[in-house]
Amino acid sequence: MPVTAYDLSDRTVFVTGAASGIGRASAVLLAEAGATVHCADRDAPGLHETAALIADRGGTAHTHHLDVTDRARLEQAVASCERLDAMAAVAGIMHSSPVLQTRDEDLDRVLAVNFKGVLYACQEATLRMIEDGTRGSIVTMASSAVDTGGPGLLCYGAAKAAVVQLTKTLATEVGPYGIRVNAVAPGWTRTPMTDRHGEEQERTEAFMARMSPLGRTGEPQDVAHAVLYLACDASSFVTGQILRPNGGVAMPW
């Protein structure tokens, strides 16, 4: 496969959760590969910072201030794109609570963003790609939490497991249209969502690094490269798969 398979010139990609962390890193890298990137997030200042980073590197970015749980607003944003070649549904939130202390509102909030928000993005992208006849790519964001249990991760892990099932199911349904659907399941990655303070941050990172055969934790760029691979032609024969940039923390069959 030639290096040009990673070239996204004349392609348009929509990225949710683009204001920070993995979403920002993905949006910037996709733009560096030549794509026009539509950046969506509810964090307006962060969203415009991402767009400025892309512009400073000579790329093209459009911003959409929205909450991914608002299906109507997401539909409008996707419809505003001149075309749509790839969707990266990255937006997500973190919540931690023991099973016995998990409240209905905790579960509902996490499922609304981490599952329903991804579902809406997938639905809108699929409808647009089918309408335009685009042999596009949809990339969802799962987590290594789907492969390894952990205290306090019921809401987060359950939502990400649902994303995996969504990814596999949708891949079987839209394959005949030439549309590919894959997920990225990162290991522990340093982002604003995982930031702690002071010694707690150091202890957390040290522990997670010890869990990895590579002896380190992830950076947003590590995950962004996985998103780029799945969004471009280099992965043209890949669908319904879970790509795991996790440092070897989980090695499922």
From TrEMBL:
Matching entries from Gene3D superfamilies are given as:
NAD(P)-binding Rossmann-like Domain
SMART domains per UniProt: PKS_KR
CDD domains cross-referenced by the UniProt entry = SDR_c (cd05233)
Keywords tagged on the record: Oxidoreductase
Matching Pfam families = adh_short_C2
Q: Which SUPFAM superfamilies match?
A: NAD(P)-binding Rossmann-fold domains (SSF51735)
Oxidoreductase recorded as keyword: yes
Q: Does the keyword Oxidoreductase apply?
A: yes
In this chain the Ketoreductase domain maps to 11-191
User: Which protein family is named in the record?
Assistant: Belongs to the short-chain dehydrogenases/reductases (SDR) family.
Listed name of the protein? SDR family oxidoreductase
What is the scientific name of the source organism?
A: Streptomyces cynarae
